[in-house]
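Q: What residues go here?
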C-alpha cells in the first residue's frame, strides 16, 4: 500500500499558507501536494492488478496537533507588501481549535490502509469533507455556466 498525504489546503487555499496550497497553475514549484496527488493517480493507472499494490491519496483536514502552535515558525520581519496579512496571528487563532481528533484520524487512516479495496481518494475529517464538497459544487457550477464554450470546439 502506498499512501500519498496531500493536505486539505490542496483544495481550500489560505492566503497565509501559500507555500503549501498555492494553485498549481500559478506557482507549480510551490505545490508539492498537487504533485503527490498527480503521482498517486498516475501510479494507480500503471499498476497491474496481479501485483496487488494499492495506492491512495488520503487528504486530511485539521487535527488538534501542535502544527499551528510552537511547531510553526514565522519570520521575524514581514515583507511590507504583505503587511495586511498576519499569518502568525491566524495560525495562533486556529491552534488547538481544529475539528479533528488526531487519534481518531490515525485510526481512520489505518483502517483505510488495511482495506482490501481502498478508494483512490478520500478525505479524513469533517472540515476536509465540507471543503472538498464545496469545491466540487463550485467547479460544477462553473463548468455548467460555460458548457456552451466548452463544447463549441469539436470539428464540424
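A:
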Amino acid at each position: 500500500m502506498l499512501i500519498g498525504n496531500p493536505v486539505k489546503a490542496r483544495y481550500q487555499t489560505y492566503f497565509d499558507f501559500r507555500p503549501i496550497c498555492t494553485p498549481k497553475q500559478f506557482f507549480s514549484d510551490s505545490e508539492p501536494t498537487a504533485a503527490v496527488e498527480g503521482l498517486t493517480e498516475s501510479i494507480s493507472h500503471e499498476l497491474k492488478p496481479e501485483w496487488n499494490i494499492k495506492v491512495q491519496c488520503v487528504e486530511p483536514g485539521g487535527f488538534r496537533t501542535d502544527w499551528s502552535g510552537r511547531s510553526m515558525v514565522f519570520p521575524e520581519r514581514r515583507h511590507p507588501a504583505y503587511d495586511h496579512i498576519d499569518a502568525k496571528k491566524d495560525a495562533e487563532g486556529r491552534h488547538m481549535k481544529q475539528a479533528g481528533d488526531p487519534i481518531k484520524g490515525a485510526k481512520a487512516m489505518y483502517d483505510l490502509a488495511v482495506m482490501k479495496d481502498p478508494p483512490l481518494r478520500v478525505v479524513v475529517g469533517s472540515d476536509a469533507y465540507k471543503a472538498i464538497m464545496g469545491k466540487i459544487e463550485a467547479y460544477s457550477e462553473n463548468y455548467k455556466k460555460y458548457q456552451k464554450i466548452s463544447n463549441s470546439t469539436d470539428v464540424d
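A: Context that may help when evaluating the design: The chain has six helices and three strands. The two ends are 46 Å apart (CA to CA).
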